[in-house]
Structure formats: C-alpha cells, structure tokens
Amino acid sequence: MSPPTEPVASLCPYCGVGCGLEAVPQGTTFKIRGDRQHPSSQGMVCVKGATILESMERDRLAYPLWRERLDQPFTVISWDEAITRLVQRLQWVRREQGADAICMYGSGQFQTEDYYVAQKLIKGCLGTNNFDANSRLCMSSAVSAYMGSFGADGPPCCYDDLEATDCAFLIGTNTAECHPIVFNRLRNHHKRHRHVKLIVVDPRRTPTAEVADLHLAIHPGTDIDLCHGIGHLLLKWGHFDAEFIEECTHGFADYVKLLEGYPPEWVADRCGIAQSDLEQAARYWGHAQAVLSLWSMGINQSAEGTAKARCLINLHLLTGQIGRPGSGPFSLTGQPNAMGGREAGGLSHLLPGYRHVTNPRHRQEVEDFWGLPRGQISDRPGRTAWQMVEGLERGEIGLFWIAATNPAVSFPHLERAKAAFLKSPFTVYQDAYFPTETAAYAHLILPAAQWSEKTGVMTNSERRVTLARAFRSPPGLARADWEIFAEVGRRLGYGRLFDFADAAAVYAEFAQLTAGRPCDHSGLSHERLARLGALQWPCPAGCSDDEARAPKRLYTDWRFATADGRAHFCVEHSHGVAEPTDAVYAFTLTTGRLYGHWHTQTRTGRIAKIQKMHPDPFLEIHPTDAANLHLNDGDWVEVRSRRGVICLPIMITRSIRPGTLFVPMHWGFLFAERAEANQLTHPTACPKSHQPELKACAVQVLPL
Ligand code: SF4
C-alpha cells in the first residue's frame, strides 16, 4: 500500500481502555501519539500504546509454515498449499468425526470483522459452536453477571461517569497498572474534588490502592461477603432506594433475608479487615449521590465470578445507583476487543448481536440472515476454552485452530494444558509472531497481519467503536485474520457467503445483523466512524450525527432487558476460593499484570524499553512470611502447588497481605525458564461463566 502523507487515526491494540492513537508519517516510518479527538482517552496513552510500533518489526511471521509431526522442523509453504491442507483436514474431520471435533480458539485481539467471519465459518457453515476465545479467561463472568442481573450483556456506564461520580468503588482491579488511562481520568477527578471518595478492595496494596481514601485488603475470595456486609449496613442505616426497588427490581425480599446473615462483626472477621473500615465503606456508599463501581479480573477470574459480579451489582440495585451520570456497575475489559467479540458472538454459547445458540429464535434469525438452512446452527453450546483441553485429552478433537492468542502461557494448569496440546492430531496456529510458546505445538502456521496492517473496528469497555485503519503493509504474505477465514469458507464451497470486497463490507453485514438488538451497530459503518470518529452503541440506523456522538448510558429509563423488565437481585452466599490453604499448601497465590507488560509478552517482550522496565518475574511476599521462612529480599524460592512448580526470586513488600503471595502472569518459557505462573493455577471454573479461577490457588514456598 502507498504510505499515507497525513496522520492516520487508529486505536491502541492492547487493553480494553481503547485509547485513540494517531500514526504520524515521519519519512519512512511513523511517530505514534495519543489522539486528542478520541473521546475515551483525550490524547493520553500509557507506555504500551506509546511503544507499540517497536513491536511490529521483530520476529514477524511472514509465510505459512508446515510440518507433519511436532518433532520436525517447519518448511515454508505457499498459501495455496496451506489452505488446501487445512480445508482437506476440515472436510476429513467433519466427515469422520463430526463437526464437533473441530475447535477454534480465538482472541480479543481480533477486530470485529475477524470475529464475525470466524462465527460465520465455524458456527454457520461448519455447524459447530466450538468457537471460544481468550475472553473466556477474561470477561465471561461479567457477561453472565450482566445477563443474570439485567437480562443482557453490556456495561451500562460510560467513561464520562469517571468524572461525574462522587464515590468510586474499585474491587478486584489494579486500574492504575492495568487500565492506566481510565485510572488517570478517575484520579484527576478525585484529586480535583475533595468530596470524591475512592475505595479500593484488593489483597495487595497496589498503586491503585496507594491513592485510595480507603483500602480494604480483604482475604482472597471474600468479595461476596464484603458486598453483603456493605449491603447489610446500607439497609440497616436506611441508605436504599425504596422506589427504585419497588418499581424496577425483582427478588428484594430474598435479598433482605440473605443480608440478615451478614452482620458487620462477622463480615469484618471473615474478610480480615477492621469493622470500622467496613463501616466507612458503607458510609461512603450511603452518603454518595453517584456511586460508580469498577471491576476487572479480581472478580471475573473466580470459581464464583458470576456471583461475585452480581453481588456487586446488588449494591447498585439496593441504592438505585444505575442509569444516572456517575453511577453504575462498570466492568473493565481486558482485551482491546473482547467487547466486540461478545457483540459478534465470539464465545461458544453466543451468536452475533448478543444472541444465544440455545435460543431457537436467535438461531433462526442468524440462519435466515446468512441464507443457511434452518437447523444448520447447532443448538448445543460449544466447548469453552478449558473444555477444548478436556476434549483433546479424550481424543475427541481432530482439528484445533488457535488464532491471535498464546494459550501455552495463559491457560491454567499449564502442564496439563500443554500435554493436551501435544495430543492434538492437527493444530493450526494463526498469529503475527514466531516463535511463540504456542507455535511449538502447531503443525500448520498461518501468518496474520496485525494492528497497523489491517483495517477494522474494535469496541472498548465503554461500548465505543473505533475504526483502526491500515497504514502499512503486512510483512511477506501475512493476511488479515478475516481474509484467511473467508478464504477457507470459499474453498469449502461457501463462496457466496464470503464474497466480501473489503473489511468495510464485512462490518456492514455484521452491523445489519445487530439491528434491533441491545448492541445495535446498524447506524455505524467504516465511513461514518472515519467521518465522526469513535462512537458508542447502541447506534441504530437512522440516528442523526448528533445522536450518534452523544455519550450513552444503558438503562437510563430503568427498564431492563429481562422478561419482566426488572433488574434481578442475586441471592447467593460465597463458597470462598476453590482451593483453600491447608497445612502443606499454606499460602494463597494470586496472579496479575504489571504496568508495562501485556499478557504473555508476545509484543511487549520484544520492546526494549518495556523489557528494561520489567526484566524478570518475581514473587511478592510479606516481611512476616519471609522472616518465618528465613528469607531475604532477592533470595530464590521454589513455589509449589498441587499441579506444578516454579522458581523465582522474592520481593519482600508490605503491599501484600501476610499469607498471600503475588506473581506476575507474563512469563512463558520463551522469556524465563521455570517461572510460568500458570504452572501453579487450577482450571476450576465458575459454573455459569466457565471462567477459571486464575486469581487464587494454594501453594507452598520452599527456600532454594
Ligand atoms: Fe493502550 Fe490500554 Fe495503555 Fe490505553 S491504557 S494506551 S489502550 S494499553
């Protein structure tokens, strides 16, 4: 493609904050800067967005690669040969083992166009719902919580609420490091207005907690108890909205009964915090005009992630803190386009437009729209991420297709996951980089274009859709993910369904399929997004430019998407962490991210500045625990769980609770030996969201 001469508006492809970027041509290269016109980020970027271009140059995968067996070296092959091999295998597996022996594991790094064409191929043409994405490890508990409480997915808030709240309740989110630009906006508001309160709930004293008015360092796994404890006090002190509860909610009487069992002295003891701190938190909630709660992986990555998020939402229902400026429950998305993935049906129980595979009307709508025979889409939810591992173990999967993600680092119980990958008779790995940890398990490797090399849209945490335009050519023969899926569809004989002129045509078709649905994109197009900038959904066809530009909140009329139009209280007790500590495994290990790195380092591990910032993994331990083990700062230890062992140096810090340890999750075997956090974690998952409890497992620490 010919290089642009004017700045090109784009979007940071790292996290769900979704900051606008501009690529400014400078001779033969580009300078990346924040886009001041982007409403979400207003020109701000963190170190990842600022250095993104550096990651585009190293270790790029440029040609398809093939090998018969995993112990052989790869050979470069043509696209024609690669697609032929893939299509022949798809046809053979479908014929010999059935469509459900085919699995695709995709990514919140996909643009919406990639997601959409993948759904059409896998769920529509091939007739299996075995498409899941790394969002399963990230946001699926938020999805099922919104569904359970409001009747539809979709965060109700927008980023303008960060500057309209007078009490921000941050639970299970280290926002300062993991969603830094959201935090900048909130922190600036907090600094400017002394009455604004910031409450942070986290077992670690993170940089987020450092600046809070109140830090509740609860025991891991006691989030539900804390929420019920706050609810108990709000009710007792009369801080509830009787009119909202009466007119707009369901299940209040049962909720009140449940809260009776959460007196403050019991809750404080259970959570490991002072009763006065619990009461202060409830006081801040009760006295605020607008309460905004933010959450992320500390809530979602749990064996009771759905219940945790719903019990947090309960507090908003109790106090009527929803649908108004500055208030509401707000999940912060991990991946840049996990939201777009949900909209496009990119989880194994979903179809495009927030539809569900188990709903006959939804299946028919999609079949009719795609021109497929009724009954073509399976009525069974497909395999979730971990169920794919279990399917590989049982020999039920004949083709495993992984795209734009690195499960050989990010899956829980990594040794078991890797052993399952080795059993796959045919693994396709579609990515932008080589080598990666997951590439070691692949037979066929397909080179994918990535950010800056392909045009498409992504939706950020506040439901804002940004067009990211290509401004450079991909390396070698790399192609956009959606183009690869479309080519496979055509070669399978579905040419008519994949006859897209470009990414704009893909998006136009997807947007049409969302008309009238909660996530209505039908008023959006590449052309309109280019002309007006990033816009939020719902954006129905026919809305004016001013309407399209206006900030949007959901449920402003307090009518919800449930069958009865009411929001539903969740009446559940906590079961605590799935793997409690005992005499042998006496510590609770929690995992998380660092400011500079992104997930498994596929990009950030290749950026010198970020490598310098976070060169090595480490284990955070409290001074009391270190003293009991006769350890000094920097000593190496072995950390063991029932599943695996890792070795790393300790960092003694008061920022972690005694009895709790922290290890960053970024290191796979390519970047550090024997330091993979997920060797230790377990796959026990929330029964509703199927999101594994990556945030807590029981371990022991042995000095080396
Ligand atoms: Fe990118 Fe997230 Fe940083 Fe914004 S906050 S620049 S989206 S990584």
TrEMBL record:
User: Which cofactors?
Assistant: [4Fe-4S] cluster; Mo-bis(molybdopterin guanine dinucleotide)
Q: Report whether Iron-sulfur shows up as a keyword of the record.
A: yes
Gene Ontology MF, one: 4 iron, 4 sulfur cluster binding
Q: Which GO terms describe its biological process?
A: nitrate assimilation
Identify the SUPFAM superfamilies for this entry.
ADC-like, Formate dehydrogenase/DMSO reductase, domains 1-3
Domain 4Fe-4S Mo/W bis-MGD-type residue range list: 5-60
Q: Which SMART domains match?
A: Molybdop_Fe4S4
Claim: Protease is one of the keywords in the record: no
Q: Which InterPro entries match?
A: Asp_de-COase-like_dom_sf, CT_Nitrate-R-NapA-like, MoPterin_dinucl-bd_dom, Mopterin_OxRdtase, Mopterin_OxRdtase_4Fe-4S_dom, MopterinOxRdtase_cofactor_BS, Prok_molybdopt-oxidoreductase
* Superkingdom of source: Bacteria
Which GO CC terms are listed, alphabetically?
membrane
Q: Which UniProt keywords apply?
A: 4Fe-4S, Iron, Iron-sulfur, Metal-binding, Molybdenum, Nitrate assimilation, Oxidoreductase
Q: Which family does it belong to?
A: Belongs to the prokaryotic molybdopterin-containing oxidoreductase family. NasA/NapA/NarB subfamily.
UniProt cross-references to PANTHER family, sorted A to Z: NADPH-FE(3+) OXIDOREDUCTASE SUBUNIT ALPHA, RESPIRATORY NITRATE REDUCTASE
Q: Which protein are we looking at?
A: Nitrate reductase catalytic subunit
Taxonomy of the source species: Bacteria, Bacillati, Cyanobacteriota, Cyanophyceae, Acaryochloridales
